[in-house]
């Protein structure tokens, strides 16, 4: 190599390396009050690389997460120019998005990226999936409108086959509009003016965006129902493009050993009986692998893998005469933390899958067997890990619209508000139905958006007769559902036992301890009762749980929910700090207390 050639080679190498640095320079984490340890693990070229829908897995897919262009415009206006890069799937308000800007109800957030459909997907239907985008989302392919969706928590899918060609680069453009608390839609604890128990909002795309190819004849959805009384697994498939000659084959595995298989014509229900099985429980979360194959005249048109657990949730009466919550026909005292799912660096979006798993692992390590997912819906990997780890989940429906007081009457929603709430409620149940970890649907919390309580309770029962319904967690009980649930801060209280419903303490505790250098703000941090140090916090916690355990034994209490697993913004009443770096009382100590052992 001559000197001139070497110089040219050196310049090319420097140029290429600078391109990489410039690309990464488009994603820098802005100054933020706190970061978790996983912020450094976020790869801007491949964030959230894990398969996003483990309850219904296909072999082929393409992840579209990464650095996209973004712009913020007046509502219903298109961008005149693009302002920079945003890291999808982190919300625009978050530090991990690289933007950290707030969006008002009078503005739209726009995204743009290029993508290619793999050449091998030719002659396939191409599905574009959004795991979640808050709140109204519109999608264009090469300036052709391909679809839209309203809802901030549910995954949705758009068939973009007519807009794309395999092997060709296309432009994907997305607009999102989110009125946060200026609208009536479900929003959980997101507000435009964060304070107290109300937090920074999440707008736009906040979960994985991805593509997958399918045959014209493919599985749209399915329901899995296990029956512990007779050892059966029932599969109820919904096949899109169904025609004569189609059949459905189901195989059940355990440790790669086939336990049962059958094939049935068309989309008929399939029932497989196992000669022997182990029930799923927090102490022994046994799962069974399932393969569902759609076949047309001997040709496989679709194949997915999933899992299930033999698990039954019901009400029953114990020997002491109390009506309680039963798991697999036996009473199991359920104890868990309130889990709001907020992160200092990602807001609604955990930094990584590993970060999300850390919270669940800590919940188990602390001796809890349950969590209450509070007015938020997580990505589908969250529930997969709860299935795998053995964590019972009480799933709240996120609230919206107006709030009522402790003794107030149900609100009156507009027809549009009610229709949207019920649509999102149905989608919550539909998209999470097959996870054995979810055992209770919570319709309303503390009167937030509570309306037509009896009808909504029955609506949930119609959508899912296999689980219990907690109509109103705290405050405005209407005598409906399977559970009487009260909240009491800070010390625990027990509701009066009832004949036909189980009694639970749906929230209590909230003992606060602000840990220096691990708070969202330097001042104005709070708890329902502030403690001076970790020793006094531990003693008070132990005292509280001594009371709770006696309520279980003597008053018929079925379950308790402690506020909360982590600090959230100015709330410093978590068992962990908001950045997850400090375990305030020691997980081993909590394990002994929560499981009723002497410390």
Q: What key attributes describe this structure?
A:
599 residues; alpha+beta; Jelly Rolls; Immunoglobulin-like; eight-stranded parallel β-sheet; six-stranded antiparallel β-sheet; 33% strand
Notes on the protein architecture:
It is built from seven helices and 34 strands. The model is unreliable at 5-23 (pLDDT under 50). Strand 27, helix 4 and strand 28 form a beta-alpha-beta unit. Strands 29-28-27-26-25-34-31-30 form an eight-stranded parallel β-sheet. Helices cover 17% and strands 33% of the residues. The protein has 599 residues and is α+β, with helices and mostly antiparallel strands.
Q: From the 3D coordinates, which CATH architecture of one domain would you assign?
A: Sandwich
* Portion in beta strands: 25-35%
The N- and C-terminal alpha carbons lie at a distance of 73 Å
Q: What is the number of beta strands?
A: 34
According to CATH, the homologous superfamily of one domain is: Galactose-binding domain-like
| CATH fold type of one domain | Jelly Rolls
Shape: globular
Q: Which CATH class of one domain?
A: Mainly Beta
- Low-confidence region ranges: 5-23
**Order of strands, widest sheet:** 29-28-27-26-25-34-31-30
């Amino acid at each position: 190599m001559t000197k001139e050639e070497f110089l040219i080679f050196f310049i090319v190498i420097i140029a290429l390396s600078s391109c990489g640095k410039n690309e990464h320079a488009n994603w820098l984490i802005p100054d933020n009050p706190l970061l978790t340890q996983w912020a450094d693990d976020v790869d801007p070229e491949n964030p959230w690389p894990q398969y996003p829908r483990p309850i219904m897995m296909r072999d082929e897919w393409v992840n579209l997460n990464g650095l996209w262009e973004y712009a913020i415009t007046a509502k219903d206006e298109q961008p005149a120019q693009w302002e920079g890069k945003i890291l999808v799937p982190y919300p625009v308000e978050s530090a991990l998005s690289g933007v950290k800007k707030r969006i008002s109800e009078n503005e739209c957030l726009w995204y743009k990226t290029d993508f290619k459909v793999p050449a091998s997907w030719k002659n396939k239907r191409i599905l574009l999936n959004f795991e979640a985008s808050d709140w109204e989302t519109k999608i264009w392919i090469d300036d052709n409108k391909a679809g839209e969706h309203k809802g901030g928590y549910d995954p949705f899918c758009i068939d973009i086959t007519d807009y794309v060609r395999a092997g060709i680069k296309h432009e994907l453009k997305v607009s999102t509009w989110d009125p946060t608390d200026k609208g009536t839609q479900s929003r959980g604890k997101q507000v435009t003016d964060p304070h107290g128990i109300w937090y920074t909002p999440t707008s736009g795309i906040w979960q994985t965006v991805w593509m997958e190819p399918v045959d014209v004849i493919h599985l749209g959805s399915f329901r899995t129902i296990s029956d512990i009384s007779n050892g059966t697994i029932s599969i109820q498939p919904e096949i899109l493009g169904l025609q004569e000659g189609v059949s459905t084959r189901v195989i059940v595995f355990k440790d790669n050993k086939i336990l049962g298989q059958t094939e049935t014509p068309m989309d008929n229900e399939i029932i497989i009986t196992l000669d022997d099985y182990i029930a799923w429980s927090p102490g022994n979360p046994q799962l069974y692998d399932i393969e569902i194959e759609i076949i047309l005249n001997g040709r496989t048109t679709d194949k997915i893998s999933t899992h299930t657990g033999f698990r039954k949730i019901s009400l029953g009466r114990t020997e002491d005469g109390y009506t309680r919550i039963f798991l697999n026909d036996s009473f199991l005292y359920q104890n868990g933390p309130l889990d709001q799912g907020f992160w200092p660096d990602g807001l609604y979006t955990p930094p990584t899958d590993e970060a999300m798993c850390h919270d669940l692992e800590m919940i188990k390590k602390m001796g809890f067997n349950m969590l209450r997912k509070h007015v938020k819906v997580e990505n589908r990997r969250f529930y997969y890990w709860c299935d795998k780890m053995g964590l019972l989940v009480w799933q709240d429906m996120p609230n919206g619209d107006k709030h009522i007081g402790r003794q107030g009457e149900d609100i009156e929603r507009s027809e549009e508000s009610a229709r949207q709430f019920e649509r999102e409620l149905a989608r919550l149940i539909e998209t999470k139905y097959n996870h054995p970890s979810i055992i209770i649907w919570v319709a309303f919390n503390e009167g937030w958006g509570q309306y037509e309580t009896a009808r909504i309770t029955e609506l949930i029962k119609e959508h899912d007769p296999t689980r219990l319904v907690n109509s109103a967690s705290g405050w405005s009980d209407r005598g409906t559902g399977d559970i009487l649930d009260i909240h009491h801060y800070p010390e625990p209280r027990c509701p009066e036992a009832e004949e036909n419903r189980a009694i639970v303490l749906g929230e209590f505790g909230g003992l606060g301890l602000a840990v220096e250098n691990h708070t969202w703000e330097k001042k104005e941090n709070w708890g329902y009762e502030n403690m001076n140090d970790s020793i006094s916090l531990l003693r008070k916690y132990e005292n509280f749980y001594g009371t709770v355990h006696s309520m279980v034994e003597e008053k018929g209490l079925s379950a308790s929910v402690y506020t909360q697993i982590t600090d959230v913004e100015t709330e410093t009443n978590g068992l962990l700090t908001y950045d997850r770096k400090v375990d305030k009382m020691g997980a081993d100590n909590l394990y002994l207390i929560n499981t009723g052992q002497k410390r």
